[in-house]
Design brief:
heterodimer, A: 1 helix, about 35% helix
């Protein structure tokens, strides 16, 4: 549907795997930062309270 | 397929006369050409209203859920697979249904016929392999039936019903020489940017009338997520994000259940081919889990089963 493949990640991390969690989150953050902000799937309308 | 009509009426009359069912769901002529409408027959003498031709594209499985009476329903290949899905999902009970199988040779694409015809269409009739269009100004045009089939019918590989109590005619030969996934592969091959624009163009005409959802036998939720107000999952307006969310999410709700009957596309007043979305999921289900929806009563759906060797390449 036109979302860049690097923007979406799936991982299976047990609650005991804190190191893996850190690694995965760091990697995802870097990849998403490299892509920049998602401009296409953002609602442009002003929010009505 | 027009020849089925007599047999359709005969079967409906018999079932109602001997009280095997309380209601027969079939089609009758609509008020406009190429627009047959679903019809609920409760008396044997009304059975003559029924017809069967290439304009019975609506999926009658849509009318089976939430009913108490014993029903007989006419089912094409795709409809019968939706009935199987209903039974597997406990929406209908098999013993309350009489399924009358209709071996199908494809439904006529009313938009294609209209776009290839000049002038206002008065009537459309079928004779064998020909579709004859009669115009208001007295002229007529003839089409080869295969040239004006709905997109899903032209590539259909399950024309015969998979479940039935009786048949209106002999089973037809299944198509084997069709490239079922050609259009999906084309979209898969696009790069991200092109694909995004493709979907923007595809869904741009959508007016959010939800005809596709209402025509779909799978969309039987008492309250659809688009109608929820607490919480309100998505906006009611024409914002592109909301339109896209509706279409993509609806497609995902049909993953592993859709039989590509084409009811959604047929119902769409602006002619969006939203089948491309459900078909992609159909392809994924087939390639990842060798799953085709509604083929047998004793198989659990792809999203309902776990196998240790399920592909999980997307999980890191």
């Amino acid at each position: 549907m036109g979302v860049e493949p690097d923007r979406l990640h799936f991982s299976w991390i047990s609650s005991a795997e804190s190191t893996k969690f850190v690694e995965v989150v760091t990697e995802i953050t870097e990849k998403v930062k490299a892509l920049g902000p998602n401009t296409h799937y953002v609602k442009k309308e002003a929010k009505v309270a | 397929m027009i020849a089925y009509t007599d047999k359709v009426r005969q079967i409906a009359r018999r079932l109602l006369e001997d009280c095997s069912v309380e209601m027969v769901i079939g089609f009758r002529k609509g008020s406009q050409p190429m627009m047959n409408e679903p019809c609920f027959i409760k008396k044997a003498e009304d059975a003559d209203q029924l017809v069967w031709d290439g304009n019975c594209g609506i999926n009658l499985a849509n009318y089976l859920t939430g009913r108490k009476e014993k029903i007989a329903v006419f089912a094409k290949g795709c409809d019968s697979r939706n009935i199987v899905t209903h039974i597997v999902e406990n929406k209908v009970q098999r013993d309350r249904l009489v399924i009358i199988g209709v071996p199908c040779t494809g439904m006529i694409d009313k938009r294609l016929v209209a776009s290839q015809t000049e002038g206002e269409i008065e009537a459309v009739s079928e004779t064998g392999d020909k579709v004859v269009v009669k115009l208001k100004d007295g002229g007529s045009t003839e089409f080869d039936r295969r040239q004006v089939l709905q997109g899903n019918c032209a590539l259909c590989v399950h024309r015969n019903p998979v479940i039935y109590d009786e048949l209106v005619a002999d089973l037809v030969e299944e198509q084997t020489d069709v490239d079922h996934w050609a259009d999906i592969r084309e979209i898969e091959a696009m790069d991200v940017e092109k694909r995004r624009r493709f979907f923007e163009d595809l869904l741009a005409p959508c007016i959010r009338c939800y005809a596709c959802r209402n025509a779909c036998p799978l969309c039987y939720c008492p309250t659809c997520f688009v109608d929820e107000s607490r919480p309100q999952w998505l906006g009611k307006g024409q914002d592109q994000i909301d339109v896209h969310t509706f279409h993509f999410l609806r497609a995902f709700h049909c993953a592993g259940r859709c039989t590509d009957c084409g009811a959604c596309q047929r119902a769409c007043p602006v002619g969006i081919n939203m089948r491309l979305l459900t078909k992609k999921l159909e392809k994924d289900c087939f390639e990842l889990y060798q799953w085709e929806a509604g083929m047998a009563l004793d198989q659990r759906p792809a999203l309902d089963t776990y196998k240790p060797d399920d592909p999980e390449g997307f999980i890191k």
